[in-house]
Amino acid sequence: MNDFGLILIGLILCTTTISSLQCNHLPLQQRKVIENSLQLLDKMGRKFPQQCLREKMSFRFPEQVLKPRQREAVKMAIEEIFHHIFYIFSKNLTVAAWDGTALEQFQNGLYQQIEQLEACVIKKQTHYFRNKEVNRLKLKKYFQKIDCFLKDKQHNLCSWEISRAEMRRCLQLIDKVVRRLNN
C-alpha cells in the first residue's frame, strides 16, 4: 500500500472517531441548541402583542411522538420537528418585523442540529419504520395546522407571533424530553 492509501485510511478512521464522539455528546448539544433557540426566539420579537391575545389558537402538539420507548425513535421525532420548524421559519417572514440577525441565527442553529441528527440517528427502515411513519404523519398534521393558520391569516403579525409562541412551547417540550433521556 502506498503512502496515499495509508493517509486515506487514517482520515477515514479519524473522521469516524470524531463523528462517533459528536454523536455521544448529542443530547448535551441538543440541550445547548434548544436553550440558544429559545433565547433567539425571545430576541427575535418583542413581548407578545396585546392585539393578538384574542386570536390565540390551540394547535395541540402531538406529545406522544416524544414518548416512545426507543431512544432512537425519539431522536427521529426531534429531527422531524426541527425540519418542520425550519420550514415554517424559512418563508413569508416579511410582516413579522423580527430581528433579522436573531432569525438568521435561529435558522442556522436549527439547520446545524438537523445535520447533526441526520448524521447520528440510525435510520433503521425495519424496526422503527411503522412507528416513525405514524409519528411523522402526526407531526405533519400538527405543522400543517400552523402553516394553514399562517396562510389563512395571510402571514400577518399576529399569526407569526402566535406561531412563534407555539414553536417556543414545542422547543420546551423537546428540552424536557432531552433532559429526561440524559438521566
Characterise the protein shown here.
With 183 residues, this protein is mostly helical. The protein has a single domain (26-181), classed as Growth Hormone, Chain: A. 71% of the residues lie in helices and 0% in strands. The protein is built from 6 helices and no strands. The protein has helices spanning 3-24, 26-44, 71-88, 100-120, 129-152, 157-182. Helix 1 crosses helix 4 (100-120) and helix 3 (71-88) runs antiparallel to helix 4. It is globular and about 45 Å long. The model is unreliable at 4-21 (pLDDT under 50). It holds the Pfam family Interferon. It is found in: Secreted. Residues 1-20 form the signal peptide. This is Interferon epsilon-like. GO terms for molecular function: cytokine activity; cytokine receptor binding.
Compact summary:
With 183 residues, the chain is an all-alpha fold. The protein has six helices and no strands. It has helices spanning 3-24, 26-44, 71-88, 100-120, 129-152, 157-182.
| Count of alpha and pi helical runs | 6
Number of domains: 1
Poorly predicted runs:
4-21
Number of strands: 0
Average pLDDT reading: 78
Strand content: under 5%
Helix content class: over 70%
Q: What is the CATH first-level class name?
A: Mainly Alpha
The arrangement of helices and strands along the chain is: HHHHHH
**Radius of gyration computed on alpha carbons:** 19 Å
> If you consult CATH, what is the topology?
Growth Hormone, Chain: A
**Shape, per Cα inertia axes:** globular
CATH architecture: Up-down Bundle
Specify the structural class.
mainly alpha
First-residue to last-residue Cα separation: 47 Å
Biggest beta sheet attributes = none
